[in-house]
Amino acid sequence: MSVDVNTVRRIAHLARIAVSEDEIAPLQGELNAILAFVEQLGSVDVEGVEAMTSVTPMAMKKRADVVTEGGRADDVVFNAPATEDHYFLVPKVVE
Description:
The protein has a domain at 5-42: Histone, subunit A. It is mainly alpha-helical. The chain is elongated. The protein has a two-stranded antiparallel sheet. The protein is 38% helix and 4% strand. The longest helix is centred in the first third of the chain and has 22 residues, at 21-42. The chain has helices spanning 5-14, 21-42, 73-76, and strands at 83-84, 87-88. The mean pLDDT is 90. Keywords: ATP-binding, Ligase, Nucleotide-binding, Protein biosynthesis. Its EC number is 6.3.5.-. This is Aspartyl/glutamyl-tRNA(Asn/Gln) amidotransferase subunit C. Belongs to the GatC family.
């Protein structure tokens, strides 16, 4: 795939980047080099390679799944101006 001058102008317009006529040719070369690299990546054999989320192995930090004291709904809604059955009541804003 190759990027032409009009495509460079369109990309710059869509990205809201001001590009002068002198900058179009170098940008065209850079975009074509990027696309060539992406095409080259498509030919890499990744069969059997495990997907990774980071370049350094790490375990997810998770908190312990423990039961807490709970059952404090009255304390949670204590300062609310209006409540009903342990729920906050808010004014209706949509008709």
